[in-house]
Write a structure and sequence with these properties.
Elements: H1 2-5, H2 32-54, H3 58-85, H4 90-109, H5 118-142, H6 147-167, H7 174-191, H8 196-199, H9 206-229, H10 237-260, H11 272-283, H12 285-304, H13 313-335, H14 343-362, H15 371-389
Helix pairs in contact: 2-3, 2-4, 2-9, 2-12, 3-5, 4-5, 5-6, 6-7, 9-10, 9-12, 10-12, 10-13, 10-15, 11-13, 12-13, 13-14, 13-15, 14-15
């Protein structure tokens, strides 16, 4: 027994450690806690999708966009912290659980976030970001060399969180003005960090995997929209064909991200010029995920109506534009993987831009063609993306330089 007494068990609380992203050979994957954390955002995306489905109009898309940005940014903030400083100790788990509770409150307040529950939404987001600030302060306390990064993020995100909290005390519409100011500070904090991204890079295997998983969540919502949209009591050949086309669109978007654009490929980060490409890859995910969600809602609206009926003009345009935005965002993610502009690259991308333009133009015939025909055209455009992505890739470095 004496020998056993000399064995020192690892402590429950361990200091964070910096997990450099330059060693791309180091295996690192999402933890069970990270996957658990993502479940809260499954609920948030579902709430956003439902709200857009209830008001699939230009004003509905505007409300959806205003709310999608902070929800996505809340997930991005925690993900970037973890990719640099994840430590599987009790302190990290408790802070993550606290942030999950705040994110769950954020999701609860989404349906009326621009109305009756706007104060609750603001306080929930402020809580999410305040906990993130606490995590960065904790990391800076234990890792002195990373304090230029953690101090900058704690100051910027802390200022934004304070504005979100303050907005709960300010009447509408000034409350929303504070939201916009706070979001600008939130985004500018990492955007203006410059060489700090190079000095303290994220883990370049872990980060693409995490963004790939969030993309899967959103595509999964598209599949759910199709399945839930079909009423078995009123199932017809037309609704069955529309459901099948909806699934094909979801598959094509999955293919476009993981195979065509190589969205989840391992990246490299080594200079200021390359930071811009790294940021292009990161921020292109926002319109992509919004476009996929809006596409899924539009497909559900097609399924809900009689197959030979045309969509209302606004819904037809929104569905067409959603597909086009998704394709353009995939192109931007693809561009982020290349070191230079070559003739081969231009030739490779031209068909994809043509697909996006045709997607927009499809909106012009949305009031003439029945919904099933409109969905058929958009499905063919999405499938054609798969075809063009199968061509030989232009000779360029696939890693984000």
């Amino acid at each position: 027994m004496k020998g056993g007494m000399g064995v020192k068990k690892p402590g429950l609380f361990k200091p964070p450690r910096f997990r450099s992203g330059q060693d791309t050979e180091t295996e690192r994957h999402a933890t069970w806690l990270e996957l658990f954390y993502d479940l809260v955002f499954v609920a948030a995306v579902s709430q956003l999708s439902k709200g857009l489905g209830d008001d699939y109009s230009w004003s509905g898309v505007l409300r959806f966009s205003v709310l999608f940005v902070p929800v996505w940014w809340a997930w991005v903030g925690h993900t970037f912290y973890l990719t640099r400083f994840d430590t599987e100790d009790m302190g990290h788990r408790l802070l993550t659980m606290a942030q999950m509770a705040a994110a769950a409150s954020l999701a609860v307040h989404v349906p009326a976030a621009l109305g009756a529950t706007s104060a609750g939404f603001a306080l929930s987001y402020a809580a999410v970001r305040s906990i993130l600030v606490a995590e960065y302060l904790r990391a800076g306390l234990h890792i002195p060399e990373v304090r230029p990064l953690t101090g900058r993020y704690a100051a910027g995100f802390g200022a934004a969180a304070s504005l979100w909290a303050l907005s709960a005390l300010v009447p509408v519409p000034w409350r929303f003005l504070l939201w916009g100011t706070a979001l600008a500070i939130d985004f500018l904090t990492p955007l203006t960090a410059g060489q700090l991204h190079v000095r303290f890079p994220p883990h370049l295997m872990h980060l693409p995997e995490r963004f790939g998983l969030f993309t899967i969540i959103v595509i999964g919502e598209a599949v759910v929209s199709v399945v839930v949209g079909i009423n078995p009591a009123r199932f017809t050949l037309g609704s069955g064909m529309e459901g099948l086309m909806g699934l094909v669109v979801a598959f094509a978007l999955w293919w476009g991200y993981f195979e065509g654009a190589k969205g989840a490929a391992v990246r490299a980060l080594s200079s200021k010029r390359h930071v811009r490409r790294y940021q292009l890859w990161l921020y292109s995910h926002l319109p992509l995920l919004m476009g996929i969600t809006a596409t899924a809602v539009g497909v559900r609206h097609v399924i809900h109506q009689a197959p030979l009926d045309a969509l209302p003009i606004s819904e037809g345009w929104l569905l067409s534009l959603s597909v086009a935005v998704s394709v353009l965002a995939l192109n931007a993610i693809f561009l982020a993987a290349f070191t230079g502009r070559t003739r081969q690259l231009h030739r490779f991308l031209v068909p994809h831009y043509v697909i996006a333009i045709l997607g927009v133009l499809t909106g012009t015939v949305s009031t003439i063609l029945p919904g099933i025909a409109l969905l058929g055209i958009l499905t063919l455009l999405c499938v054609s993306q798969i075809f063009f992505s199968l061509r030989e890739m232009p000779s360029a470095d696939v890693d984000l330089p």
